[in-house]
From TrEMBL:
PANTHER family: CLAUDIN. Keywords: Cell junction, Cell membrane, Membrane, Signal, Tight junction, Transmembrane, Transmembrane helix. InterPro entries: Claudin, Claudin_CS, PMP22/EMP/MP20/Claudin. Claudins function as major constituents of the tight junction complexes that regulate the permeability of epithelia. GO terms for cellular component: bicellular tight junction; plasma membrane. The chain crosses the membrane at residues 84-105, 117-141, 161-182. The keyword Transmembrane helix applies. It comes from the Eukaryota. Belongs to the claudin family. This is Claudin. It is found in: Cell junction, Tight junction; Cell membrane. Residues 1-20 form the signal peptide. It comes from Acrocephalus arundinaceus (Great reed-warbler). It is a multi-pass membrane protein.
Length: 219
């Protein structure tokens, strides 16, 4: 029962991780630049994401521009696009697989099949967490290095946005969920290896007596 509740807790963490992963991939808040001019009417907030760049004006206007060209983008943005999409796909696969393998569901067949499904889903979550953690770290490093560069003007410097923090938290949720699923299945298999099923051993005298009894019956 404790293992089933732990798997359910890991499944909830994985759900939050999947939703956060998708939100971080789509939101344009990867890096934010607040440029306040001398007049409050001209104050703008520029946001850059993986797929679009948005500008919010203090007057209430909001405009976005899609990034159509892929080859013109920096390498870290291209890598972030690829790894975040892979993270979303793997986490979605993990949700489907662990739904079949969880103890609280009636899917997946026998116990061994459900354990294998849970282990496979946990591996998907771990890979999704790694794929989500790499681009956020790389993106944050680029933002910090540009911010500390003295040759870059103040108006061109950015800070990490909400999507970066969402990606960090989502990757952590997915990693924790994957470790819980894999460890729960590993403990169950390890217990089966340490305590194998008992086998009844018959002594030679018992076997001979049984053999003799059967021969007498046939005579």
């Amino acid at each position: 029962m404790a293992s089933a509740s732990l798997q359910f807790f890991a499944f909830i963490l994985a759900l939050f991780g999947v939703f956060g992963d998708i939100a971080a991939t789509l939101l344009p808040h990867w890096k934010v630049n607040a440029d306040v001019g001398s007049n409050i009417i001209t104050a703008i907030t520029q946001m850059q994401g993986l797929w679009m760049d948005c500008t919010w004006y203090s007057t209430g206007m909001f405009s976005c521009t899609l990034k159509y060209s892929i080859l013109s983008l920096p390498v870290y943005i291209q890598a972030a696009r690829t790894t975040m999409v892979l993270s979303c796909i793997l986490s979605a696969f993990g949700i489907c697989i662990t739904t079949v393998g969880m103890k609280c569901t009636k899917l997946g067949g026998d116990t061994d099949s459900k354990n294998n499904a849970c282990f496979a889903g946990g591996i998907c979550f771990i890979l999704a967490g790694i794929f989500g953690l790499v681009p956020t770290c790389w993106y944050t490093r680029e933002i910090i290095s540009n911010f500390l560069d003295q040759t870059i003007p103040e108006s061109s410097k950015h800070e990490p946005g909400g999507a970066v923090y969402t990606g960090f938290i989502s990757a952590g949720f997915l990693l924790i969920a994957g470790v819980i699923f894999c460890s729960s299945c590993f403990k169950r298999q390890q217990g089966a290896w340490i305590y194998p099923p008992k086998q009844h051993h018959f002594s030679s005298t018992e076997q001979e007596s049984n053999a003799g009894y059967s021969l007498k019956d046939y005579v």
